[in-house]
Amino acid sequence: MSLKTHVIGAVAYDPKVVTIWEGMREHFREQGFPIDFALYSNYERSVEALLEGKVDIAWHTPLAHVRVQRRTDGKSLSLGMRDSDRDFRAKIVVRADAGIRSLQDLHGKMLAVGSRDSTQARILPLYFLRKEGIDLKRVELLPFDTDLGKHGDTGTSELDVLAALKAGRAQAGTVGDLIWANEQAAGRIDANRLQVLWTTPPFDHCSFDALPSLPREAAEGFQRALFAMKWENPRHRPVLEMEGLREWLPARDSGYVTLREALDQEGYW
Amino acid sequence: MRESPREPRPISVAAVDGGDLALGAGLLALVRSTLDVMEPGGVLAVLSSSSTVREDLPSWCRLERHRYVGLERAHDGRDQHLIERGRYSHAAGSNEAGIHLPRKPLPERLRSDAAQERPAERLQVTSADMLASVPMPPRASPYTGFAPRGARVEPGGPEYPFTLLDRESIAPPEVAQIYDQAVVQQWDASRDIAWEKIEPGSPKVEAAIGQIMTFLAENELSALYVPARFLPRIHPAYAEVAMLIAQQLADEARHIDVFMKRARIAGGGAGISTVITSRSLHSLLQPDDFTEATFLLSVLGEGTFLDLLRFIEDNAPDETTANIMRRARNDEARHVRFGLAHVRHALSQDPSLYGRLEAAVHRRAATLGDAKSVPAPVQDALTILAAGGVEPRALAQGHEKFQKLLQDMSVNRVTRLLNAGFTQAQAEVLSGLHTANFM
Questions:
Q1: Residues contacting B161, CB < 8 A, separation 6+
Q2: Which of A85, A162, A196 to mutate to test the interface with B (most CBs of B within 10 A)?
Q3: Could you tell me if B19 lies within 8 Å of chain A, comparing CB atoms?
Q4: Is the Cβ pair A191, B156 closer than 8 Å?
Q5: CB A19 within 8 A of CB A242
Q6: Which is nearest to B172 in space by CA: B391, B340, B26?
Q7: Chain A residue with Cα closest to B89
Q8: CB A185 within 8 A of CB B22
Q9: Which homologous superfamily does the CATH classification assign to the domain defined by A6-85+204-266?
Q10: Domain ranges for chain A
Q11: Cα A2 to chain center, whole Å?
Q12: Which chain A residues are Cβ-neighbours of B158 within 8 angstroms?
């Protein structure tokens, strides 16, 4: 009896996505859980494809993830996430010469922000700033709405934010913690010119979503194969590197509360 | 994994003082290099007076999958960040820090002119001593790639196509000594040969020399190509074997060069390449086993060549040609020494190897067809060389000398095979099957 091939939806935010999913397909075949993949150009299309049953499982940004949960009345299945998706944070980076010593000092300043559908570079940092008592009407935003529909996956808007800060086009900016740490570690940040003013509370990031109708054995078979990928395995490692993780972990629901609140406040559902 | 008592074990607790360094301004050079020598789960304390480190270090830990344990106040009031080393990208093995290779006085015979100015200060560090300090592992993993032996290898690298992974089958204990010797004995076929002393001689003798040199160069070309096929298969844990082969290849390149220069320096020119030679050398490309190929090429072929080079040296018309032969023979003797060491070592580890080597010699003999005599142009050229010309009575003597050469080759080949660890009966069988082409 041949096994059903499950179709995984993902978004082609970069040419490497094809390489990633070819590698995933090969790995899942070896694991006895055959998959194929369908690539969409944006997460809105991917969410619809999952809801319409065109794909069995979809790899989603936090924004797409909470939208699927909302559209399924919270009944959708969350099958897994990257280790890097847990406890994500955003950074408020400031120019050292801008005289910004506290969050209150952001008032009257130019704040560079990432794409409006980027959880880490726009939605949540602004939400947390409001929560800290910042009146965003008194802050001038310099938005970089690049790669809309990709939900910040490309990181392009975050690099745009850093470039604007370096060039002095803004006094402050919002970026995800991993891009910030990565740029620092690579020596691309002048520590005398750019510094972190504040780090947001943690939130969770991407997730594999499925409809509640996915059979239990399919969900388990998918997870078994997913969690069998190992960083130490030379054939797995390139895929894991490109996808930005060391280890696949079970999904958890606790990390999306703030995102839902933010979307409620902004009416951005 | 190799372990020796003087190497420090990975450490489980450490502290670094980062001063006021920001994370992106040099602190990582301190933190990363310390974590690299710590075992997973080990705890590193980072002392810091930089406030930005409070924001940046936890994020960097998340990026690298180390656990940021927390921030404490040190007794001097500074920040003390605690990091638990994560389990990823942990290079296996223990650190070589503190290793000191032995340094010995440079022997007088190895001193260059410049070195002799301060002879007492000259020291040498040999590859043999390094091998003794960092021994080869019995078995090597194709996943360690080109990492030099002794390096700590981060797991997860690709599988390399090395197939010679066993110390006992490729690396005799004396390989590094032979390598050291090979490096010292390199010479220059343009500068180190007294070309000016070769006068145009008898055209017949020069033609014979041209033929002989062509034959030598043809055989040396095979000795360049055959070991080269195996070089990329050798695991770098046994790099001394690859390095020695590299020296041998340089030797062969020089021989090809110097032989054809000698053929053309005084009117002789290139001679004939025969089917017997071509077929014989073609058959050297067939073995796919390093030990079989080494046995056929270095023990039987190059071993037999020692006698041939000696013969040409003894009968050379001028001192420069004799000197060329002496230099080439000295190099070839080293190749034979390695071949013998290799086969002797492999035979001592695996007695069934004799059967495989005998089968290889038989297989090769079967491909050589009916030709059981030395290629005629070579035989004639050697005879004319030994005669010093084409005067009939001299030719008779040349012919006798040639017959004597064949006998010497046979006797010495059997001696070499006994030396490699074969019995008298085995040695005689193998020697008798050897190609009439010498190599």
A1: B142, B232, B233
A2: A196
A3: no
A4: no
A5: yes
A6: B340
A7: A232
A8: no
A9: Periplasmic binding protein-like II (3.40.190.10)
A10: 6-85+204-266, 90-199
A11: 35
A12: 234
A136 at B interface, C-beta within 8 A: no
What is the dotted CATH code of the domain comprising B11-84? 3.30.110.40
| Domain-wise residue ranges, chain B | 11-84, 99-133, 167-433
Chain A CB contacts of B62 below 8 Å: 84, 87, 89, 177-178, 181
Asked if B60 lies within 8 A of A181 by C-beta distance, the reply is yes
Asked whether the beta carbons of A77 and A219 are under 8 A apart, the reply is yes
Question: Which SS3 state, helix, strand or coil, does residue A196 take?
Answer: strand
Closest approach of chain A CAs to the CA of B354, in angstroms? 39
B23 neighbourhood in chain A, CB within 8 Å: 184, 191
CATH number (1.10.760.10, 1.10.620.20, 3.40.50.150, 3.90.180.10) of B167-433 reads 1.10.620.20
The reply to whether domains A6-85+204-266 and A90-199 share a CATH topology is yes
Searching chain A, which residue's CA lies closest to the CA of residue B53?
A: A196
What order do you get walking across the sheet with A35-40 strand by strand? A35-40, A6-11, A57-60, A207-210, A77-82, A248-249
- Classify residue B419 by burial, with Cβ atoms within 10 Å: 0-12, 13-18, 19+: middle
Q: How far apart are CA B217 and CA B223, in angstroms?
A: 10
**Interface with chain A: mutation pick from B48, B63, B141, B144, highest number of A CBs within 10 Å:** B63
A242 touching B (Cβ < 8 Å): no
Q: In whole angstroms, what is the distance from residue B41 CA to residue B65 CA? A: 11
Domain range A90-199, CATH architecture: 3-Layer(aba) Sandwich (3.40)
3-state secondary structure B152-174: CCCCCCCCCCCCECEHHHHCCCC
Per-residue pLDDT of chain B (439 residues; tens, 9 = 90+): 344 444 455 678 999 999 999 999 999 999 999 999 999 999 999 999 999 999 999 999 999 999 999 999 999 999 999 999 999 988 888 888 889 999 988 888 777 665 555 656 788 999 999 999 999 999 999 999 999 999 999 988 999 999 999 999 899 999 999 999 999 999 999 999 999 999 888 999 999 999 999 999 999 999 999 999 999 999 999 999 999 999 999 999 999 999 999 999 999 999 999 999 999 999 999 999 999 999 999 999 999 999 999 999 999 999 999 999 999 999 999 999 999 999 999 999 998 999 999 999 999 988 887 777 899 999 999 999 999 999 999 999 999 999 999 999 999 999 999 998 899 999 999 999 898 889 8
Contact residues on chain A for B156, CB-CB shorter than 8 A:
231-234, 237
Mutate to test the interface with B, among A100, A180, A182, A194 (most CBs of B within 10 A): A180
pLDDT per residue as tens digits for the range A136-177: 999 999 999 988 999 988 888 999 999 999 999 999 999 999
A184, A234, A246 ranked by CB distance to B65: nearest: A246
